[in-house]
């Protein structure tokens, strides 16, 4: 549980808020399922990121964190590490059915 305090009550810890329907979840570490989705779109994502951010092809792009959003499918917001400890966000819309 967070040690942050709610601004309205100074003695109570902040409670976890329930997810909002259609809302984007918080960033979390990438798991195997996320990597499977990344791998499906990897070639396209790498080309877009390399072109947009002038990333050399020798640099291996890898997602370090992800947030998800349930829509008519699933949006994945991958936080991708670039050279020089910079990051980009790549959105993937994936329909698993």
UniProtKB/TrEMBL annotation:
InterPro entries: Cystatin_dom (IPR000010), Cystatin_sf (IPR046350), Prot_inh_cystat_CS (IPR018073). Residues 28-88 form the Cystatin domain. It comes from the Eukaryota. SUPFAM superfamilies: Cystatin/monellin. Residues 1-26 are annotated as: Disordered. Pfam families: Cystatin (PF00031). One of its GO terms (molecular function) is cysteine-type endopeptidase inhibitor activity. This is Cystatin domain-containing protein.
């Amino acid at each position: 549980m967070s040690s942050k305090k709610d601004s309205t009550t100074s003695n109570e810890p902040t409670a976890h808020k329930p997810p909002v329907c259609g809302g984007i979840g918080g960033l979390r570490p990438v798991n195997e399922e996320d990597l499977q989705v990344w791998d499906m779109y990897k070639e396209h994502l790498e080309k877009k990121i390399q072109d947009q951010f002038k990333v050399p092809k020798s640099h291996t792009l890898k997602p370090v964190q992800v947030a998800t959003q349930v829509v008519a499918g699933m949006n994945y917001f991958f936080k991708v590490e670039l050279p020089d400890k910079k990051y980009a966000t790549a959105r993937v819309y994936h329909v698993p059915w």
